[in-house]
Amino acid sequence: MRQQHAGTDDYVPGHGDASFGVEHYDLELDYKVAGNRLSGEATLRCRALAPISRLELDLHALKVARVHVDGTSARYSHRGDRLAVTLGRTVPEGESVEVRVRYAGTPKQVRSRRHGQAGWEELSDGVIVAAQPHGAPSWFPCNDRPDDKATYDITVTAAKGYHVAVAGELVDRSTRGSTTTWTYVQDAPMATYLATVQIGRYEVIDQAGAPVPVRVVAPADRPEKDFEAAFGMQPQMLGFFAETFGDYPFASYTAVITDDDLEIPLESQGLSTFGRNFMRDDWECIRLVAHELSHQWWGNSVTLGHWRDIWLHEGFACYSEWLWSERIGLMTVGERAEVHHERVRTDDGDELLLGDPGPDLMFDDRVYKRGALTLHALRRQIGDACFFEVLRTWCEENQFGTVTTAMFVEHAERVSGEDLGELFEAWLYTVELPPLPD
């Protein structure tokens, strides 16, 4: 009997299967930059969360050649973006099964009426993967839910002369003939949308002075003065955030700067991606460098379980920008809060509930700014010392986990010892913007 597909998020419908979780992905990829041709073999260790005789994976556009389950050839169907695999037996709850998928084709971004395009994107001479929130299936078969984190081994073979950066730690690189194979390991559990591959003719710049290795992967002909102005303080930035939020959660941090201009930067796990146009000596670029770096705490280590809770990522990252502004002697947090409170108050966009903005507004700028204002209101109510204790313990207790808004409210009340229901109801679940507390 066909089991009902479950587990999709209303904000990203049609993605994910709640009947199982993936514990580990082993991805072996071969990519031809000339021609934009990807072939791969993905081996998934899946754990049944209920008795299952089939499971469904997300895979977009690429053609499946064969599927094996526990080493045996398996029946499958690939319709639309859903790859349904027949397991050949009923796998009991709690038991693991290995699914291996061989696939190839021309990767294409996943299109969404609400969220635009995301995923594997061909550049003028290379590739970026920017998958938030729905683009992971553009390059590997996955259980595409933000609450299903797994560890990864990712091996990418590409033409010699290209640098390959992946969300993980480089453990091996070998050149054979005209190709180089790069092997990365991600030991920290990672959501599918945070996995990434970046390929280009880049050089690596190591930046000293941070608690962990920090590097920039960038074009050799970058404008040095503007590059230093925008990215030169990343080690100090990481150190400041580590002092403020708790230890940096991953083994290293990489900023990739593509040779193409990009509309927006985007975070991945242990790595952020920027376009060439973000190398400028101005606050807009500096704040985005801070924003993406802070996502390593807010979003990548501590990750939403449902997309409706996106303010837990973007509001926190926006507030981190304001903290860095004050740290380097620009506008204080309070000054930025006042400016953005007025802008949000006078915004004439569609009505928005921060705690559940809806899929059409989940990346609305008010989610970012009102989210940061919510944190500032909390800070003013419970005081600085207690506020930063709330943030540090939130990171510590939920490292590499998934969270909800209700969990944060409960956490803030427990740490502060205060009833914060009225505050959060006003800021998260009321359309009207509350006044900024004194």
Content-based structural category: alpha+beta
The number of E-state strands comes to 23
In spatial order, strands of the major sheet run 5-4-8-2-1-12-15-14
CATH H-level superfamily of the largest domain: tricorn interacting facor f3 domain
| Uncertain residue ranges | 1-7
Sheet with the most strands, sense and barrel status: 8 strands, mixed
Give the helix level as a range of percent: 25-40%
What would CATH call the class of the largest domain? Mainly Beta
| Global shape | globular
- Nearest-integer average pLDDT: 97
The helix tally amounts to 9
Tell me the Rg in angstroms.
22 Å
Reported CATH architecture of the largest domain: Sandwich
CATH names the topology of the largest domain as: Immunoglobulin-like
Strand composition percent? 25-35%
Any idea how many domains?
3
The rounded distance between the terminal residues' Cα atoms is: 61 Å
What does this structure look like?
Belongs to the peptidase M1 family. Residues 1-7 have low confidence and may be disordered. It contains 9 helices and 23 strands. Helices cover 26% and strands 33% of the residues. It is globular and about 65 Å long. Strands 5-4-8-2-1-12-15-14 form an 8-stranded mixed sheet, with no helix packed on it. The chain has a 5-stranded mixed sheet with strand order 17-18-19-21-20, with no helix packed on it. It has a 3-stranded antiparallel sheet with strand order 3-7-6, with no helix packed on it. It folds into 3 domains: 20-197, Sandwich (Immunoglobulin-like); 203-290, Zincin-like (2-Layer Sandwich); 304-428, Neutral Protease, domain 2 (Orthogonal Bundle), CATH 1.10.390. With 438 residues, the protein is α+β, with helices and mostly antiparallel strands.
